[in-house]
Design goal:
CATH architecture of the largest domain: 3-Layer(aba) Sandwich
Distance between the termini: 32 Å
Number of helices: 11
CATH topology of the largest domain: Aminopeptidase
Order of helices and strands: HEHEHEEHHHEHEHHEHEEEHEE
Low-confidence stretches: 1-26, 129-134, 141-145, 150-158, 163-173, 263-294
Strand order of the largest sheet: 2-1-3-6-4-5
Largest sheet: 6 strands, mixed
Mean pLDDT: 76
Number of domains: 2
Length: about 375
């Protein structure tokens, strides 16, 4: 299938996904845990090829699920697999979507040609051009070639070994990116106290297993089976309990934030980013003016962060931006458009600076669902 046809398909997919930006606000009730690989797909292998990624991920996943079940009996824990079986990547996503899960956690073990590579990292869905991230995403996505000769049809022409195929992911907007980043940051925070001390941080990558999930989703790489020190830790079953406990602690903290922010629908009025040099009286006047806005209009969201940015922050790339505070996040937006068509006209230009930008609907200073 030509790349230009793929671009059209993914543009349509983006439009559908963007409209689900603000789902109904409910308590976290369902979590899907996805042990990476399985069955005829062993995943990454140790140097002697005796220790398999699929066994480590299943062990940690089952322990994590048990911790959640014991601590939160009301939460339904769903596994994409509980035994050593092969599950296609799109089936894993389908399990999460059909069950209307509130969180998707995929657990993996890393590998690299450079044996010195070490540490844990957590991925969320997105486009990233760094070579190290690309190596991981190609490795994880290559499993689709085990799914039969029709994999190209099932994944709409995607070729995991063709770098050009990854261009299409720049068009995708994950409506749950900020929540996914929240969970990812908590995982990495708790991993700082884990058996593998090196943190490689939070990454974005075009991972097929996260592609079509309709909920916050993360992919956790516990460590490098290709690194002698990491391997020794990963192969120790006592450490599987430690990994599970650390991910559970992140889940517990995420649940508290999720329940507080979204079950109550906590949100504050739209606020203008005001240069620090302006006087207090000017700030007060400007804020009052913005807070009086009651007309429904469209904006383009460029990012969600956990702190207020300076007006001259390099993160804003010189753009005139406003923010809406929702829970612990500040959602930065550009423009005010009376119609969605006007917002769409500006979206392409804004995406040159912010590839993840998408359209939101604002009413009385708060974000409301796009119909």
């Amino acid at each position: 299938m030509p790349i230009r046809v793929l671009l059209v398909i993914f543009s349509l997919l983006w439009a559908t996904t963007s409209q689900s930006q603000e789902n109904s606000m409910v308590m976290l009730k369902k979590v899907v845990i996805d042990p990476g690989h399985g069955g005829r797909d062993p995943g990454a292998l140790s140097a002697d090829r005796k220790v398999k990624e699929k066994d480590i991920t299943l062990s940690v996943s089952l322990k994590l699920g048990d911790l959640i079940k014991r601590s939160y009996p009301d939460i339904e824990v769903i596994f994409t697999r509980k035994t050593d079986v092969f599950i296609e990547l799109d089936k894993r996503t389908e399990i999460a979507n059909k069950n209307k899960a509130d969180l998707f956690i995929s657990i993996h073990v890393n590998a690299a040609t450079a044996r010195a590579a070490t540490g844990s990292e957590t991925f969320v869905m997105g486009a990233d051009k760094s070579s190290s991230n690309f190596e991981v995403t190609m490795l994880e996505n290559s499993v689709i070639m085990m799914e039969g000769e029709d994999y190209a049809t099932r994944y709409e022409g995607f070729d995991p070994n063709n770098p050009e195929s990854y261009i299409i992911f720049t068009l995708l907007q994950n409506a749950h990116l900020e929540q996914s980043l929240e969970m990812a940051s908590l995982v990495q925070k708790h991993f700082n106290n884990g058996p593998i001390k090196v943190s490689r941080g939070i990454k974005q990558g075009p991972l097929l297993v996260l592609w079509k999930t309709s909920m916050p989703s993360v992919l956790i790489e516990l460590g490098f089976i290709s690194n002698p020190l990491d391997f020794k830790i990963l192969n120790n079953h006592a450490n599987h309990d430690k990994f599970a406990s650390l991910i559970f602690n992140a889940f517990k903290e995420y649940k508290q934030i999720y329940d507080k922010d979204y079950s109550n629908g906590e949100s504050t009025a739209l606020k203008k980013v005001i240069p620090q040099s302006e006087s207090k009286s000017t700030q007060d006047t400007s804020l009052k003016k913005v807070r009086k806005e009651s007309e429904t209009h469209y904006r383009i969201q460029i990012m969600a962060v956990n702190k207020i940015l300076r007006s001259n922050s390099p993160d804003l790339k010189g753009r005139d931006a406003n923010y809406i505070k929702m829970g612990n996040l500040y959602k930065y937006t550009i423009g005010e458009y009376p119609t969605i068509d006007m917002a769409k006209k500006e979206l392409g230009s804004i995406r040159k600076d912010f590839p993840q930008a998408f359209i939101i609907l604002v009413k009385d200073g708060t974000i409301v669902p796009l119909n």
